[in-house]
Design brief:
alpha/beta, elongated, nine-stranded mixed sheet, 36% strand
């Protein structure tokens, strides 16, 4: 009798709470249009899986309310791990832009001429009273796949204003930062080749 009463009470409480909010999943996507004219590099490229700082290596989307307080959204998630999200977006970027002559799948002993290696230091939403921002910090390295020599290192720590205080604006703002920084890194790589061959 007592057990039945407890079950009835729990059922009533759960029914009163209503259905749980639906989970939502987000991904990054780079636009088709070039941010600026980019140099042509007549070599093949492979994008190595991105390494991610442990705090951010989670499918839950992280938001920060101060330098000391952060949390994860309970119902908003990345469609895949942040590392896979980033390296897929970078590979997509180079497939869309006429920079390298081929973008090939990554393999440690692959056939690529250049490997793009990356580390994600931060990928988050920053909720400030003045407005919300997307924050992305990374190190990008273009590496000679044959010798292992680092050709160019490009490090950035950038924020972009989100159009509204909504988590759904985060992926577009992060994608915009990544697109701009990849363009800058490619220009640095082309300049390194020019200097070497000049």
């Amino acid at each position: 009798m007592r057990k039945a009463a407890i079950c009835l009470l729990l059922t009533a409480i759960l029914a009163g709470c209503g259905p749980a909010p639906a989970k939502r999943y987000f991904q990054m996507s780079i636009a088709e249009a070039a941010t600026r004219s980019l140099p042509k590099i007549d070599l093949s490229l492979a994008v190595e899986p991105a390494a991610v700082v442990r705090l951010y290596d989670d499918v839950r989307i992280l938001y920060r309310v101060s330098d000391f307080e952060l949390d994860y959204y309970p119902y908003e998630f990345w469609a895949q791990s942040p590392g896979r999200l980033i390296d897929a977006a970078m590979a997509d970027y180079f497939r869309k832009k006429p920079v390298f002559n081929r973008v090939v799948p990554f393999a440690p002993e692959g056939t690529q001429d250049i490997t793009l290696r990356s580390r994600v230091h931060a990928i988050e939403e920053v909720d400030a009273s003045a407005g919300w921002q997307a924050h992305l910090a990374m190190t990008l390295e273009f590496v000679d796949a044959k010798t292992g020599k680092v050709l160019v290192t490009h490090t950035f720590d950038k924020s972009a204003r989100m159009a509204a205080k909504k988590v759904e604006d985060l992926p577009a703002a992060l994608s915009q930062i990544l697109e701009q920084e990849l363009a800058s890194a490619v220009i640095e790589l082309a300049q390194a080749f020019e200097k070497k061959n000049g």
